[in-house]
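Revision sheet: structure tokens.
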Amino acid sequence: MRDPAFHARLRELTVEYYEFVWRSLRRLGVRPPETDDAAQRVFLVLAQKLSSIHPDKERSFIFGIAMRVAANVRRDLATAREREVAESDSLESIAPGPTAETAVARAQERATLDEILASIPEERRAVFVLFELEELTVTEIAELLGLPFGTVATRLRRARQEFQAAVARLQARGQGGKP
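Predicted:
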């Protein structure tokens, strides 16, 4: 059993960073209901590594765990979807497809911030989320991710361009235009 100081520190970090972790996971492409489980995985890994984390590097370490957990969850879900599609192929040939109106309605429902963020590659999405949504400075992001200032600035610029392009595609799609 670990000492009381370990448990107190883990509890303190969980309370302090839970919302940040949950938001980060969502913005890194983890959708409910997997978000809660993924957040729990982040803190389980944190508990295993807690003794090796420097006290002023906790946020950076936690975000790094969240990025890896999010990537694993997305990969696992993609694999599960591939299996579902393979199993349901025979049913698709029997079942009628959705009407054009239904297809358009579904496309519009998917036009969310999550979809737009998912179109940005992960290394740039992390910088974009931290700057635009978490409101960290470029300097703070550089420290958090262990990257040079210029790399963060470049990734942010490119992520903004990709974000704007994704929004334009969704708007064109919503107006009946081609993406």
